[in-house]
Write a structure and sequence with these properties.
Bound molecules: shikimate-3-phosphate
Shape: globular
Strand order of the largest sheet: 2-3-1-4-5
Number of helices: 8
Helix content: 40-55%
Strand content: 5-15%
Largest sheet: 5 strands, parallel
Number of strands: 5
């Protein structure tokens, strides 16, 4: 089993864009749980939430990381923002690679996700309150599951990717 590099964090933290930068810097394939689930299901994440329910989506997430983490080839893996909330998922991730938590401030999330319609958990109502509440609840959980924490606000994906490479060498 390869030592995978795994990116976690809240919606809008930049897991996919930082994943792209790291994939290019490390010459490794980039995999993304949401994209794999959508391809397998033939439905968007929003549609899966709507038609099958969140519980089924969470089950698909666990199934997906089990499959990916078994791969021999080391990859950069970006995981959906809610995936590390299950303790079993956090254990799987930590065993399979180096887990990097991309920590983002609520204001950055709100700016980046203004007008977004693809995140079912942020639709309708007071989005700012939802983001703040979810981040307060999830922050400590992401931290607990990570080997390394990187603050992303005000940095480019390339800068964050390079910061991760510098810090991760010291940690492995
Ligand atoms: C979710 C995050 C989303 C997606 C789904 C649920 C969450 O992924 O998996 O909408 O619970 O935080 P991103 O973090 O890539 O936006």
């Amino acid at each position: 089993m390869g030592i995978h590099l795994i990116l976690t964090g809240f919606m809008g933290a930049g897991k996919t864009t930082v994943g792209k930068a790291l994939s290019s810097l490390m010459s490794r394939p980039l995999l993304d749980t949401d994209q794999l689930i959508e391809a397998q299901a033939g439905m968007s994440v929003s549609r899966i939430f709507e038609v099958c329910g969140e519980e089924e989506f969470r089950r698909l997430e666990t199934e997906t990381i089990r499959t990916i983490l078994d791969r021999k080839e080391a990859v950069v893996l970006s995981v959906g923002g809610g995936l590390p909330l299950r303790e079993g998922n956090r254990l799987l991730l930590r065993q399979a690679g180096q887990v990097v938590y991309l920590r983002v401030k609520p204001q950055t999330v709100l700016t980046r996700l203004k007008g977004d319609t693809t995140r079912p958990l942020l639709q309708g109502g007071d989005v700012e309150e939802k983001v703040r509440n979810l981040l307060t609840l999830r922050g400590p959980v992401y931290e607990e599951g990570a080997h390394l924490i990187v603050d992303v606000d005000g940095k480019t994906p390339q800068q964050i990717g390079e910061e991760i490479l510098c810090k991760k060498r010291l940690k492995i």
